[in-house]
Design a protein that fits this description.
Arc Repressor Mutant, subunit A, Tetracycline Repressor, domain 2, mainly alpha
């Protein structure tokens, strides 16, 4: 593919998409800017205009992933500003759907392959902003009595951990078929949320 076909950031996005595909199939050991260029159909030197090394490419993949996740969370919860319980449910389901629809990107975002995160301010900012959006929902739920009192950040980690654990089990095919034959993923997710919502007996 000719480099001249890329305009207005299309090359950068093409390289990111190529990097996602390579990481998904070959892992961090199989990633190189040369391979990314080849997969994107551009010259071997083209990626260096955007990414000095493969860590910067991984940072860009993760940054774009968090931007998309934040946008989808915001779209999911914003219509329910007067219904904290619905905000929590829809935000949780948006997270699950993001993982299902963007599995390769999701796995890269939470794989730990990005070293020295603080070297990438855009990544630090959007990941912080995304977590703060979750904390905001948790705080609203606590004020409404939907979630029990606790430091909001701690409760947000608990909610996120519960969801992320289920998503990881699902993506790795570890949820028993005996369960999936009886319950949908949505039912499993909401059951887990209800354990956090229900007051202690």
């Amino acid at each position: 593919m000719s480099l001249k076909k890329y305009h207005h950031g299309d090359l950068k996005n093409a390289l990111i998409q190529a990097g996602i595909k390579i990481l998904a199939k070959e892992g961090i050991g199989g990633l190189s800017l040369r391979k990314v260029a080849q997969k994107a159909g551009v010259s071997h030197s083209a990626p260096y205009a955007h990414f000095p090394d493969k860590q910067s490419l991984i940072a860009a993949i993760s940054t774009e992933g968090f931007k998309q996740l934040y946008a989808e969370l915001d779209i999911a919860v914003s219509p329910y500003s007067n219904n904290p319980r619905r905000q929590l449910a829809e935000g949780a389901w948006a997270y699950v759907q993001f993982a299902i629809n963007n599995t390769d990107t999701f796995n890269i975002m939470f794989s730990g392959v990005l070293e020295k995160e603080k070297d990438y301010p855009a990544f630090v900012e959007i990941s912080r902003k995304t977590f703060e959006r979750v904390v905001d929902v948790v705080r609203v739920c606590q004020e409404a009595g939907v979630l029990r009192p606790a430091p909001p950040e701690m409760m947000a980690i608990s909610v996120w951990g519960q969801l992320h654990g289920i998503v990881s089990l699902m993506l790795e095919g570890q949820i028993p078929h005996t369960v999936l034959d009886r319950f949908s993923v949505r039912e499993i997710v909401f059951f887990a949320l209800n354990q956090l919502i229900s007051p202690p007996q």
